[in-house]
Amino acid sequence: MKKSSSILFLISLLLSINATSQPNCYYYYPEGSRCREACLMSEKVLEKPQGSWQSQQGLDSLLVLCPNFAYGWQQKSIPYLKRGDYASWKKYLDKAVELDPKGYLGYRAGCLFDILRDYKSALSDLERLEQLTNSKILGMNAGGDLDLRVIKALCQRELGQIQNCLKTFEEMVLLNEQKKQIGIYEYHYYGTTLFRLKKFDEALIMFEKQLTQNNKFADTHYYMGCIYENQNKIEVAKKYFIEAEKNYKLGYFNNDAYDITLPDQIYLKNITNKLTNLNK
Q1: Distance from first CA to last CA of the chain, Å, rounded?
Q2: Domain with 243 in it
Q3: Nearest C-alpha neighbor of 114 from the set 78, 155, 145
Q4: In 3-state terms, what secondary structure has residue 70?
Q5: How confident is the model at residue 1 (pLDDT cuts 50, 70, 90)?
Q6: 3-class SS of residue 97
């Protein structure tokens, strides 16, 4: 979670040509088929600078050769996402989803959530993915650091589906604890959701667990400070705000290199304002 490595879905999405894995050409496409040829050629095409004329024209040629090459449509969409041309991005990505819904619904949901704040459509994608896979375990985001069930729960939260949101968090955390596969943000976002609902004691439990994952995470220290301030435990609150300020300055906080606001994000000003007010 340090600044240099604490980048959620979007940065992995935008900086990586292969935000989703290239398919195994030999497994998915028959020998001698135009689609296998297109798949194999894509490795060379994607060596060109992403979004360049050479790269985009090369992808167009591959898609003429194999219009059903979902990975090619997804790759063609990415430069438009970078440029902020979301209509073109969605047009091409929708084609990839149409051809391979299991492969790209989760990816599209993450984009819709993180960038467009289209919670309704993102949740719809994730629910459809559950139906197609007959599983509530949806996998990870494109960056590989956020369980898609976190995105599902946060979409439910933002849409006012509070009970569904809490159920999603509870089931995910319980299952991942049993498997000893807790991710780096699951406790934190469960905690911030409980914090929003003023379920402070329950939120503290999640934040304490989060600190066992990373005891330098400034965001968690900040929210714990807010809870203790609410409980009028001022000296304890100060301790957590001081810790939050120290770790924030060291780079241990949630951030995005493109300055996209992340869920429940805090800023240094939030922390310093708390300390200033408590020291009056």
Answers
A1: 32
A2: 213-280
A3: 155
A4: helix
A5: low
A6: helix
Tell me the average pLDDT across 195-222: 96
Residue 6 lies in a domain: no
* Alpha carbon 123 to its chain's center: 13
Tens of pLDDT along 125-139?
999 999 999 999 999
Residue 226 near residue 245, CB atoms below 8 Å: no
Give the domain CATH number at 64: 1.25.40
pTM of the entire predicted model: 0.88
Nearest in space to 91 (alpha carbons), one of 133, 63, 120, 127: 63
Q: Is residue 268 part of a domain?
A: yes
In this structure, the answer to whether residues 63 and 126 fall within a common structural domain is: no
Question: Considering the domain boundaries, does residue 76 fall inside one?
Answer: yes
d(CA 240, CA 203): 15
Please report whether residue 241 resides in a domain: yes
Instruction: Compute how many other C-beta atoms are within 10 angstroms of the C-beta atom of residue 96.
Output: 24
